[in-house]
Amino acid sequence: MKLNIRVILSCILLCFGFACLPAQNARRAADFGQGSEAAQDSVQEREEDPCVPLQDARRCWTLDPMTCLVYPSLPDTSYLGLGNSQSMLSKALALVYTGNLYSPHLVQDFMARRSDHDFLFMNAYNLFRVDPSQQLYYNSKLPCTVLSYSKEGGGLQTNDHLKVNFFGNFNKRIGLGSNLEYVYARGEYPESSTKPLKWNSYLYYEGDQYKAYATFNLSKLANQESGGIANRDYILSPDEFKSNFTDPKNMPTNLANTWNNTDQRQVHFQHSYSLGKWQERIEPSDSSVWSEFVPIATIFQSFNFESLHHNFRMDYGADMTENGFWGKDALPYYSDSITADSTHYNDFSTYAGIRLNEGFNRFSQFSVGAFLGFEHQHYTLVQDTLNLGFIPRNHYSNTLWAGGQISRHLSSLLSLDATARTALSGDKAGDFDIQGTLQSVIPFGQKDAETGEWSDSIIASAHSFIKNTSAPYMMEHYFSNHLRWSNNFDNEQRVRIEGRLSYPRTRTQARVGVEHINRFHYFGADGLPHEYDKQLDIFSVEVRQSLWAGKWLQWDNAVIFQQSTESKVLALPDVSIQSDLSFHFRIAKTLAIQAGVTGYYYTKYYAPTYQPATQQFCIQREYKCGNYPLLNGYVNCNLKRIKFFLAAHNMLENAVTNNMFIMPNYPNPFRRIEYGLILDLQN
């Protein structure tokens, strides 16, 4: 704890030393539209802010971690939806988690799931896992900082959340930034606290021909494991017990004094050098002449090193169940007193290639590149005490990759991104990954005779991939005190086709997706990995609609329909709904206020159960969860450079039903109040 405090204070002092102004992390592009006057007010606020980029792609961007391609991005500095965004439920349209902020979770909107990490334990934190492809880079005239703090609940159930985000530039070419996030969430129920600490920084140089980017990520994800409450009837039938269970902190749990800790250290560096020509440009306004470098070909290279360490610890007597948490006859493998499962993972990868750039003349309509890569992985497991050598303590993996990429970004009507790579040799030989995204703006309506622009348009996009991937090493071999397996799985083959339509005039979005999977890998009810030897298909439809009544009332809705052809290996809620109703107004023209409620609902289904020893979500066929509403209320305010909110979570606590379990033995948190403040500082 002392180390965490020192790190936090050091980063805060660093940010203050550079002087400050705002920028928040970019939110998902699929979030509800802001709409009408409220959205226009938000855009006007950002236009007045020299730190916040709007349409200049070179002022805020992300990078392809292999090929150094630039993707424009837009940070979100709006106060709209601020209070509700702090809830775990807002992170995905369908989600299961263990009941606390930053706790292990699994996205149940299947098409929105991230690709699994090779280190098994990182998948429980997929929503919060930061990799180089998500790093936001800024080019700002002024050094900028945003300080954010929120508090939820009170007493022994208090959750504290602190964020510090800084970025700035030494000059037009050199910039740096740093982001710190610390959470101490004690949780509603016993043995459920979480204490994640995340820090990342970046440094870049952007010249006319040479560009270099470096990122550093450090995270410590710690959470206590309860194993769920000991008896569901504490919630369903509390009157049957002599003890008072109205306070969730009094409810007995299956586990005590049990922790999962995952530490991540990552360094990523990529650079590129462009070959091209200098070309004179004439400024139309004043006829001034200036020179611009036009890149024809680019040589690129990237290096990535990631080190991960996981520790699962149980003190003596931590198992509070009558028949044993892992079964009545299940005996520990190496110790019947203290469990200390320690697993290490190191990954080093490098890619190098060359790309012919788009737009250097009228015939270069696409960017085309090719690359080679090398990946080295090292796993260190707990020593197998039952059969030495059967599950090796150390495993080394080397893979040689080759691939290519084609893209088009300069066209206003059609954009394309397609990447393919295959493993030529090594442990993953034969693996391949082909994926692409196509987006087109389809104009229609009346055409302006002077400008040639159409009066209306629809945005259509498609995304698809074909993957043939071998099972991660830890899915095939693992040893710990309570679980042990050794498998020889076939490659998992996946094909996805997904289409989207967006009509900005009516603020309507629709998505249809189909995925076909052969040899699906999953965790069974026994907590062990399995392979489904038949075909598995998933069909999904998502619709989002934003409605406005006048200038003040906004109603945003999102619904997902999804079906799995075999719910015994992949159980998903058939329908998931999110609806947000809000009222917008101003006081004295300076204080902007959004007040509203957000409701969540999903149909009843066999929600997965959670295995603390491996942090995996496993199928089960005993209890169904769902078919109840959750309602959050909020008031979001913006006063110049100060944003603050007040939120009430789970306002309908037990009003409709008390059977409000997220997963078996993991109930929803009780009604609670949250408030927060975001302070923007300007130099």
Describe the structure in your own words.
- It is a single chain.
- With 683 residues, the protein is mainly β.
- Helices cover 5% and strands 51% of the residues.
- The chain is globular.
- It has one domain (15-682): TonB-dependent receptor, beta-barrel domain (Maltoporin, Chain A).
- It has helices at residues 2-17, 36-47, 233-236, 473-476, and strands spanning 60-63, 70-72, 95-97, 105-107, 137-138, 144-152, 159-169, 174-185, 197-206, 210-224, 258-282, 289-314, 339-356, 367-380, 394-408, 414-426, 432-447, 454-469, 477-479, 484-486, 492-503, 508-523, 529-549, 553-564, 575-587, 591-602, 609-611, 616-618, 630-639, 642-649, 661-663, 666-667, 672-682.
CATH structural class: Mainly Beta
Query: What's the CATH architecture?
Result: Beta Barrel
Query: What's the CATH H-level homologous superfamily?
Result: TonB-dependent receptor, beta-barrel domain
Q: What is the helix content?
A: under 10%
N-end to C-end Cα span: 32 Å
CATH fold category name: Maltoporin, Chain A
Strand content: over 45%
- Sheet with the most strands? 22 strands, antiparallel, barrel
- Please, how many domains? 1
Could you say which structural class the secondary elements and strand pairing correspond to? mainly beta
**Taking all residues together, what is the mean pLDDT?**
86
Low-confidence stretches: 1-58
CA gyration radius, whole angstroms: 26 Å
Query: Treating each run of at least 4 consecutive H or I residues as one helix, how many helices?
Result: 4
Sum up the overall morphology in one term: globular
